[in-house]
Write a structure and sequence with these properties.
mainly beta; elongated
Length: 171
């Protein structure tokens, strides 16, 4: 499953929005969370007419709750747009997410025996998972009289590798 206690991986959602205002914006962030989790991020927005640009990147590292549930994830995204005088607009958005980590496969310890320590034992203490996702979207919006023509293009690619405890790799 993709979600829940027996999930093989996690979900990273990258949101890109149009830069707002007229001034460039740069932000840096660092967070620490439970289970040795650290998040680093940077965001740069260059709003403007006729061209606007936004780029951001983040890295999340964690030791995880269970044995073999560590993870190291890097995400980057960018967008650029060009608005013409007649209101037509062309834009491109792209993102890449890479995640490497353990695949603990849940725990075999029954729920009634959880004590804050025992449930940290994973079903698979050595399985490793690597995922990479790349997406790109092209968009053109053109006013034609009282109508608007919208043209979209989308592409994606995913890399996936699970190395299980038997040292067998699948792609």
């Amino acid at each position: 499953p993709l979600f829940g206690a027996n999930a093989a991986g996690g979900v990273v959602r990258v949101f890109t929005t149009q830069p707002e205002g007229v001034h460039p914006l740069t932000s840096l962030g660092y967070e620490t969370r439970s289970f040795g989790t650290r998040v680093q991020r940077v965001d740069l927005s260059l709003p403007g007419k006729p061209v606007d640009v936004r780029m951001n990147a983040a890295r999340t590292m964690t030791t995880g709750f269970q044995k073999n549930s560590d993870s190291d994830s890097t995400a980057a995204s960018g967008s650029a747009g060009w608005t013409l005088a007649d209101g037509a607009r062309m834009s491109v958005e792209a993102d890449r997410v890479d995640t490497d980590g353990g695949a603990p496969g849940g725990t075999n310890v029954p729920f009634d025996q959880w004590d804050g320590r025992r449930e940290r034992k994973s079903s698979d203490p050595t399985a490793r998972l690597s995922q990479g996702n790349t997406r790109i979207r092209l968009k053109t919006i053109m006013p034609v009289g009282r109508a608007t023509v919208r043209i979209f293009g989308f592409g994606s690619h995913q890399d996936y590798s699970l190395k299980d405890s038997l040292d067998v790799s699948t792609s």
